[in-house]
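Retry 2 of 3 after timeout on previous attempt. Resubmitting structure tokens to design endpoint.
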């Protein structure tokens, strides 16, 4: 995945790979322990990662994987990976999340539980499963970041012998198909700019990570809003998402 992340592991492995490139045969096993993973985009971390891997003919089997988020959250799972170039290296990974911190930043903090599965091959990925938001908070920034205006520049009187610089191809971003649902019964807080509120909701996520299709409803449970020095109690409120892209909440 093309993201900003760090992955460190201490490992011991003993694998044999025979056969041909088109039809390899593998055997052996590996144990990886004391691993750390950090994603700089979301702020999520996984500590004390332990994995047990074995090889059976053309398949690497992830017998077990476990780790923590450095607090009360835990993750465990198992999966497999086919060492088959002709099939695009298919794989499947099933996880069990318990109170895992998946987003940790200055404006957002979310803890979730669930049993997601990510599967596919090098060219096609699908994330499926049900998630429950155990606790979350989003702080509305006091100031939105300034927009930078792009200027169209035309260079004149350019020497003829100078060649235009070659354009570098942009890295292709990994696209993941989505087939998930997210539920929260409370303890999801939206705060900032005079607003202090708690929400619940049910959301279905389809489409892809590039063009997500979001369908569902969010409803306010309780809260207050300070406007011009006066406090207003929130008694009712809901946000509907109809699956349009870009998302157009109502």
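Retry 2 succeeded. Sequence:
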């Amino acid at each position: 995945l093309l993201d900003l992340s760090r992955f460190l592991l201490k490992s011991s492995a003993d694998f044999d790979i025979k056969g041909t490139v088109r039809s390899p045969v593998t055997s052996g096993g590996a144990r990886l322990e004391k691993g750390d993973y950090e994603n700089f985009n979301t702020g999520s971390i996984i500590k004390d990662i332990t994995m047990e891997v074995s090889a059976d003919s053309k398949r690497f089997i992830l017998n077990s994987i476990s780790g923590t988020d450095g607090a009360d959250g835990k993750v465990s799972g198992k999966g497999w990976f086919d060492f088959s170039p002709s099939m695009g290296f298919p794989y499947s990974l099933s996880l069990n999340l318990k109170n895992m911190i998946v987003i940790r930043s200055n404006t957002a903090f979310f803890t979730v539980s669930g049993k997601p599965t990510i599967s596919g091959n090098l060219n096609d990925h699908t994330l499926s499963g049900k998630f429950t938001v155990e606790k979350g908070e989003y702080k509305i920034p006091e100031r939105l970041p300034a927009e930078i205006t792009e200027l169209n520049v035309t260079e004149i009187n350019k020497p003829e012998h100078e060649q235009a610089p070659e354009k570098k191809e942009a890295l292709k971003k990994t696209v993941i198909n989505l087939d998930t649902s997210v539920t929260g019964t409370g303890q999801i807080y939206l705060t900032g700019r005079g607003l202090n509120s708690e929400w619940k909701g049910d959301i279905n996520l389809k489409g892809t990570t590039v063009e997500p299709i979001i369908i569902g409803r969010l409803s306010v449970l309780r809260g207050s809003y300070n406007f011009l020095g006066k406090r207003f109690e929130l008694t009712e409120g809901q946000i509907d998402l109809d699956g349009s892209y870009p998302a157009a909440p109502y």
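Attempt log closed. The mean pLDDT is 87.
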